[in-house]
Amino acid sequence: xxxxxxxxxxxxxxxxxxxxxxxxxxxxxxxxxxxxxxxxxxxxxxxxxxxxxxxxxxxxxxxxxxxxxxxxxxxxxxxxxxxxxxxxxxxxxxxxxxxxxxxxxxxxxxxxxxxxxxxxxxxxxxxxxxxxxxxxxxxxxxxxxxxxxxxxxxxxxxxxxxxxxxxxxxxxxxxxxxxxxxxxxxxxxxxxxxxxxxxxxxxxxxxxxxxxxxxxxxxxxxxxxxxxxxxxxxxxxxxxxxxxxxxxxxxxxxxxxxxxxxxxxxxxxxxxxxxxxxxxxxxxxxxxxxxxxxxxxxxxxxxxxxxxxxxxxxxxxxxxxxxxxxxxxxxxxxxxxxxxxxxxxxxxxxxxxxxxxxxxxxxxxxxxxxxxxxxxxxxxxxxxxxxxxxxxxxxxxxxxxxxxxxxx
Amino acid sequence: xxxxxxxxxxxxxxxxxxxxxxxxxxxxxxxxxxxxxxxxxxxxxxxxxxxxxxxxxxxxxxxxxxxxxxxxxxxxxxxxxxxxxxxxxxxxxxxxxxxxxxxxxxxxxxxxxxxxxxxxxxxxxxxxxxxxxxxxxxxxxxxxxxxxxxxxxxxxxxxxxxxxxxxxxxxxxxxxxxxxxxxxxxxxxxxxxxxxxxxxxxxxxxxxxxxxxxxxxxxxxxxxxxxxxxxxxxxxxxxxxxxxxxxxxxxxxxxxxxxxxxxxxxxxxxx
Lengths: 408, 271
Hints:
- The structure holds two protein chains of two kinds.
- Chain A is mostly helical.
- Chain A has helices at about 1-45, 70-80, 110-115, 120-130, 160-165, 180-215, 215-230, 235-250, 260-285, 290-295, 300-330, 335-340, 355-365, 375-405; strands spanning about 55-60, 100, 135-140, 150, 170, 180.
- Chain A is elongated, with a radius of gyration of 30 Å.
- Chain B has two domains: about 1-100 and about 235-265, Periplasmic binding protein-like II (D-Maltodextrin-Binding Protein, domain 2), CATH 3.40.190; about 100-225, 3-Layer(aba) Sandwich (D-Maltodextrin-Binding Protein, domain 2), CATH 3.40.190.
């Protein structure tokens, strides 16, 4: 009787454990899915935003025939790069474009005319616009609600195609912020590619040496040192990069500026090394002893055995290590933020400043007005980064599953 | 052992909870952060309780909208869209200027140029002038450093010096003022801008002229007598209905003692 109760209690505890594990597993999965959903739902909000800054409109004289302007054109107009209406394909009686912002109102009327509580402002704005046929105005929407006879341009929402193919990233430009991800995505890929090109030969060399050639004593020294690399905070790497690597690159390549994609690649390569080395070494070590000994018994020397037997056998593990290393490199923020210069221009070589996705998110999220277009654009960047790393993970899965079949 | 753990737990909980009990919260701009911290410290000695956190002007203002902070500190004025959102949520924000900050334009100490006009600065930062010889210096490409687009400093420099034109897209943006100084120090053709409080001997501050006649050196004295043109206000925002709660702290910041702290931190006091 007593024993039975004891056994019952044991079963109960086991069942409890099982239940707890199940719950924690499912809770974690649900939370992960919720996070992803949140990321995408916040991001998609961007494409419901007007291309003009929230709360403002772009207006022109009522006789002006202009119908549509792209965000790029609006930016060029307000930067005085487009100066005549002809360039935009419309005929206006006076061709030169006059830009009007709310602060300019005192150039046209006195402060008394506007009134103490700005009560006459809507009427005055309308008047100024109608007096100047060649004017384009950027004014708050609330002043255009009633009796506004000038033409308010309906410019539509931010388009996904503009976002994905845009070449300029000016998230705080007014009147029309520019969200073009091409330079940022390319910057991310360039830096990661450079990092992997640098890390791969070093990582492979170290892992082969430490798995196959190093004496036991040496191995015991190398391994902890490599693992120590993984423990250094990324800010420290960034600072090291800014003070040591950046001036070095500037001197070696005789550049105007040392903050380049290459500096980011080198820092990331150092950071990705521990991942690549640890995983590749484990893979190399998992080669069955029998296979290596068979090769040696057939008269192959150590080097031939490594090249013809050990590496081919463990290639999937090595690839997995490399791809995980890239994964780490792509998502790294702080170190890259400090050394790559963060200029949002399309990079042509590794010796130019670049801007990466994680650096952009980290640098801008803090100051972006919550819920605005800029805020949501950063979430879309997060989505893009998520998709890139997802693809990388799928590649890892594919490679390792393929190799399992081969061995079997 | 068990007791020890319990005690540790209680202490940890206490540490977590105590600052939030009954304290006023300030959140926002990282530029204003060092000032607010010093003010809060001095105010704490008088028995008041204020907790200060950074995160950025946008974060602070968003927190004020949510009601999760009592005061938002900002290095830029509230944007129109933010004001509208505030109104929609039925709150009204009051603005207080607590200090001024001057921005200094800096170059590498080896650069021979020592003064520039506003027009020249605008052309350099928008990419129309790309070589120092175009402004009378040696034949050297100009490397333009700026703060991140989300920083209040970036926005202020754009409005005030570039007359609302956008920076060129190849401008190098740095995450912090310290990084700008470091980069300008080690890059020969560099130009950048930093808050007056951060100026040191490793970089050279330029004299600036807005009228093309008188070139003024950035310093606390010239900023105070309003001859130096690139000066911005540092602001606190609070909700009107909270006015009573925050009054004593804000009064303290505006008092003589509070304004003395402003100068000590390196910003420019109101008087």
